[in-house]
Amino acid sequence: MDLEDIYVNVGNDDIKDITGPRTQNHSQDEGKDGKCRGRRCLVSMTVCLGLICVLLLVFITLQHINITDLEKTNEKLKNDSGQVFFSMSKEEMNWSDSRQYCRDRGADLVIIDTEEKQKFITSFIKERVWIGLSDENKGNLTWVDNSPLNQGFWDRGEPNSLDENCIELDPGRDPVNNWNDLQCSRKIKCICEK
Q1: CATH number of the domain enclosing 108
Q2: Which range, of 35-39, 47-51, 52-56, 101-105, averages the lowest pLDDT?
């Protein structure tokens, strides 16, 4: 048999395949695997995208908590005298001039509204000073910011006079209870708070 006869017979339909079931060619295999890989890839991408969203949500929440905590800490520092400055005058003045002295420096006479602040200020001053409390409204002690007096640190027997309308802090007395009312025209030093 020649080679020509073999080639001629290849075209005949009556040749039976004796090699068994036909396998798909390589390009058909790629198509099925591609579809399968595509579904797997889509599921994997969806899961990954979901995880990224969850992680971003956790990150944003933690950032918000950290920022909120930082703001609260910063506010607490300001309230705990972290950003407050005290200064004392070198010259003696009456209460009104003392207040103006503080205002000219971007401050005001000190407001003492806690025992901690009272002890702190008493610890570093050595002589009598005006504080930001007065009785200009006759009978109503108010601070320089117009807030009412809620807690006082009065020396024993004080306040004691109707014509003494301005308040001094005297560190030579009890460390906590050392306020005294004086006539506003008296000249003493003052303590400013900024």
Answers
A1: 3.10.100.10
A2: 35-39
